[in-house]
Amino acid sequence: MRRFTSHLLFGLLSAHLTLLGQGAFDAGVPPGNFDVPALVMALRNPLSGPATCADLRQFLDRDDSNLHRYQEGVYDCRHFSLELFRRAQKERIACFMTLVDFAETPIGHSVVEFPTQDKGTVFVDFTPAFSGTNQVDVKGLSMLAMGLPRIQMPLSQVPSDFTNNVAIFQSYLLMQEMLQQAKTVLATRPEEMNRTEPSLKGKMTSANAHDQDSRERAHAQQRDRYNDALQALRRYEECWKSPFDLQTRMTVTGLRRF
What we know:
The chain is an alpha+beta fold and 258 residues long.
């Protein structure tokens, strides 16, 4: 993610790539500043066309353009997106470089937009995230819609039969309050159960054996429900969250396609 400001046109570079023809697809994206529309135009393959979502997924799974080292202003989100764009064009897969604007910040972002034959438009984000100072290589599917918060998922967690529409935003956001409540409950249950457990131990007399047995069964069922809920919550978070989605979700206000 970086601030999009006016840059001097790299006219000579764009002209050079245009003259190279097919050779343009074999040259890696240069570091530093460049003019997005001019370079996209130079790299666009007139023979490219929309892929099926399955074919796109295969291409993205084997691509490694997400492994470059991130350096703000030198090799940032624009470069990751343009490199993925370049490689897709080389494979004759139709796509666009898309600049994203947010309501909460003047800092924009760059992704690659793929029109598909069967799933509509798919936004792909290969820009890495950071955990502290450690770079986390990312292959993510971005769900972007005007006026709604950006949602991202690891590509590896996206089901093959996913429904690519706004409803998935709404269902996700509606779940957030319930998930937060579940986390609160799950956070307190172990303490409650640990306090209860000692009272269930010790010697039992014949008079209270039946009652004790019932309490132990109820306690075991409560712990099972807790563990089931915890596992379900973890599966949900593994599916929907990744290191690059732990940031505040920002509202999309602009999508500029090149």
